[in-house]
Amino acid sequence: MPTINTPLVELHHHGLPRVGPTTAKKLAAEIAVIAARPDPRESTVEDLLHYMPMRYEDRSRLARIAELQDGVTASIEVQVRIGGVIPFKGGRIKLYEFIATDGEGQVRAYWWNQIYLARVFHRGARVILYGLWKKNHHKGYFEVENPEYEVLLDDEEENESPETGAIHTSRRVPIYRKLGDIRTRQLRSVFHHLLKSLEEIPESIPSDVIRRHALLGRDAALRRVHFPADDAPIEHYNEVKSAAHHRLIFEEFLWLAMAIGLRRGERTAETKGARIVIDERIDEALRAMLPFELTGAQRRALGEIFADMTSDRPMNRLLQGDVGSGKTIVAVQAMALAIENGYQTALMVPTEILAEQHHRNIRRILAGTAYNAGLLTGSLRAKEKRETHERIASGELNLIVGTHALIQEAVEFDRLGLAVIDEQHRFGVLQRAEIRRRGLNPDVLVMTATPIPRSLAMTVYGDLDVSVIDELPPGRTPVSTHVRGDDRREKIYEFIREQIRAGRQAYVVYPIIEESEKLDLRNATEMYEHLQRDVFPEYRLGLLHGRMKPAEKEEVMSAFVRNELQTLVATTVIEVGVDVPNATVMLIEHAERFGLSQLHQLRGRVGRGAAESYCILLAQYEQTKDARERLKIMEETTDGFRIAERDLELRGPGEVMGTRQSGLPAFRVANLVRDQRVLETARREADYLLAKRRDDPDTAAMIERVSREPRFGLADVG
User: Which residue ranges make up each domain of the chain?
Assistant: First the structure.
């Protein structure tokens, strides 16, 4: 008899119908990906039970044939009269069909390329069919294509238990997404037999927590979420508001909140090796390097950062600010404070082009100082890389800008006192922890230009203190955004010409680099050639994409900054950080293919100077309803936080934050947008347990589990 800890690869040993060694291996492999298990052999029955139905259908009421309506879904019970296989297209496609009756009328059911059904439906078999019924006006009867079915077994048939007849029809039925090549029907059967064979599923959270929040027990929740009771309101299940769903959502958030609370407590207790002070000399040095007056929001954020850096505990702060709000100069001031105190600083960014730009801008800001800034990326030549490693290890370089190359084995810092991580959601948890490990338990400042909705910030950045720069520097003008169809292309090109004639520059962004057979998208390489040859032959254009060598990217970007190139044709490699104040037009092709946050980031590349700027979203007419809604929001607002909230609702946290590398927990039932209230309740409960009930055996057991299980590694963010 299996338990919830039984490995899925061994499930076939427990006598479950239709679960042989092959199916067991497939289940283990697919669930390992979803549950983030590094080895399929680690996938368990518990992991499988958290593979939730995507929706539920009420198939409990059986209709008569006389009650069927055209275009309406219904369940009926009929008896097979005659069936057979019909070949099409020379036998390449085969259709199985049968005619059946309920004694009063007759119907036709058919399935494409499922000829094995000829062995399933013998003449006289009683069958329940569920599907969308359509009236065949030529034949005068109803028919159904690829319906769900249940063969009702006679008493003398012993090949399967009669109880199986209630899995797929005549009840409230769970519908699952296909798992690899295992379809919903087979999954439903597996879950039915598995839950029947399991003894009571053990509880995982304290009984007083269950009482306080009036939760279902874990055993009942997991059973009911797969097979609702006959009297359960099906709309509650489809809206994920059933008592079973609520219990499982609360539990997921509670474990997460415990992990974050524990990590925050650990950080509070830590002491750092870097001792940082601000005296009159240092204060003057920092002021002298400022290229302009800081905004009030920048000064406030810098005050919070300096307070952290001069305390005895390591800083663990998130600096959040919309595109163009001036986070970089705040970070440079923090790095200068560390350097003035005799420490090294590192700025880690996700792409080489961004590293190169930060390095260039920081060297310009530090031009009047004695600081040495270096660049370390994966594409440096072996000799350059070796020399840079030596300069880092000796302490000669006191500010190092780099990609993930900063945390490779060969890199040894002399006295790393501050690590700044830019666009941190693009790095994995382990990468962030690694850069911290290489210093003197250094201060860590995490920066993001992606506005993070509060519910998402609580989970991704739950153990960080937050500073927000919510004010744009003076001289920045709002960007005017317009959605246009392909019929306006020539007018858009003429508008770009007018801007170039006025001395301005433009971006044209495409979603892919080279032509794809699967997607009918304009690609950057081909369109660059077309635009240069046929549309703007009188101007110079540049091409920029992620597959170019760093030196090539640097050459193109430098030429664009100097206005030697009037238009830059690019992929989303320019999404983050590229700063050209003279660029006033952002044309985004196939805008319906982008997420809201990405469109907002791209729009932020223009409007960086005093001139009026424009973002034109060129979309295809066959765009989906979701895409139309996204693009409408872009026209309505430039508020990054509002856009981020809508993006989170439309696409989900994984997409918004960059999926696998985001450090996001893999929620199996919970949803950060839909379940925000439950998240708040679970967080308050975790705070209470850690503050008031920490010594209780139940709470101690939860803390031990959180500390032991790798999936709670989210607590290591930063």
Answer: 8-57+175-239, 61-170, 280-469, 479-637
Q: What is the pLDDT of residues 140-155, one digit of tens each?
A: 999 999 998 878 765 4
SS3 per-residue string spanning 475-499: CCCCEEEEEECHHHHHHHHHHHHHH
- b/e 194-226 (16+ beta carbons within 10 angstroms → b): bbeebeebeeebbeebbeebebbbbbbbbbbbb
Q: Do the first three CATH levels of 280-469 and 479-637 match, i.e. the same topology?
A: yes
Strand order in the sheet with 416-422: 373-376, 399-402, 344-348, 416-422, 443-448, 316-321, 465-469
Classify 479-637 by CATH class: alpha beta
Query: Cβ of 669: how many Cβ atoms within 10 Å?
Result: 20
pLDDT value for 90: 79
Weakest mean pLDDT among 81-90, 404-413, 556-565, 570-579? 570-579
Amino acid letter, 491: K
pTM of the model: 0.63
What the block records as the tokens of 375 is: 């660049």
DSSP label at residue 138: T
- Residue 158 pLDDT level (bands cut at 50, 70, 90): very low
C-alpha to C-alpha distance for 279 and 438, rounded to whole angstroms:
28
- Amino acid letter, 449: A
- 579, two tokens: 């700063």
Distance CA 307, CA 278 (A): 10
